[in-house]
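tool=predict chain=A
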Amino acid sequence: MRKGSRLFLQIATRVIVCITLLVIGAGITGALVASRPLPERRDEAALVRSVTVFPLQRADVPRQWTGYGTARALRSVDVPARISAVVVNRPPHMERGTVVRAGEVLVMLDPTDFEWQAETSRAAIAVLDAEQRRLHVESAGLTERLEIARAQLAIAAADLARVQDAGANDAAMAREIDAARQARLAADRERALLEESLAAIPARRESIAAQRAAEQARLRIAEEQIARTVITSPIDGILESLDVESGENVQPGTRIARLVDPREIEVPLRLPSSARRFVRPGDRVQVAPTGDAGTAWDGSVVRIAPEDDPRTRTMTVFAQITADADAARRIAPGQFVRGEVTSVHLERRFIVPRRAVLRDRIMVVGEDDRLDGRRVEVAWPVVLEHLPSGLPDLAWLVLDGDDLPEGARVVAEASRRLYDGMQVRPAAAVRQPGRDASEIPR
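tool=predict ok
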């Protein structure tokens, strides 16, 4: 009995301890629940979110495209050497960056060899001129001698006739007839030789004239080479490089200098191939250095490449940039730039600020001030300012389609916290005073 009483006492003690712990835990839990902070009760009207809205309107907007390219000077020239000679003079002020006028001397080459060639040709021409004068005198002498020879031939012929008549009457011997015949033949031979010499005079004169023309051509070549020893600038521009030094021997085709005229700049811009249907010569272009929003140059499209690049699916338009009067602000040839091409033809479309579109949806506030999400398709982005919507944005999206009602109230700032059917309190957009439009990200 004693063992049974002891076991019962142990079990009872454990049960009492467990019940006590449960009661204490329940008490602590009740105390924590009783002392918990209660959430602040707010009026349902205070939960309505305020949103900025603007009326959806159509506007006359251009198409715009962004392209990139490297500026290049319309007028640039590599000045080559056209003769083989030694540089004898390089003006000390001719250094990279020097402003050069057309006709200004860049380099002078040694003209000695060409001057000797010119003197040789002049001496040869003088000899030929003297030969021409001697030929004229010879021609006059041959003409006079030919007249005498013809007179002698006539006398010899008459003498032969008389001797032959005398021989027929047995008054002259055969020996006398032969002598008269020989005299006539000698006179005839002298006449023939003189006529032949006189007939050769025109051919000799033509030969001398041809030799003189050849020497005259060599003289002109020598004089032209002498002129080429003075290398001058063919254009007004800035010296990009001068590649030779005094004492250096240059060969024909060697580049002497490079000149660039930065007043007329052309930029080939690569645009999407889809722009070909819309972009035209005369469209406006604004070019700016990449990463520099404070500098821009205005220009226009002057021509369009006829072929697309199938690898990049781009087309190339050539923009001519108006020169800036301030040389420090001119676009530099070789500079990589971004170009905004704006079509001169306008289209009347619905437009919304870029920040109003989230995941191809805009939020429209209905008559009951509840949000209604509408899916939209963006036709193209555009950068505009001074719109009557009251928003300071520069980045806008042109919508495709006319299924939205004009004048609908659109939320200006799309957010993930806005959902269909949400009650809102619309507030009309008011241009923020003191906010520069340039602060709006594009």
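Residues 113-228 form one domain. The helical segments are 2-34, 112-168, 174-228.
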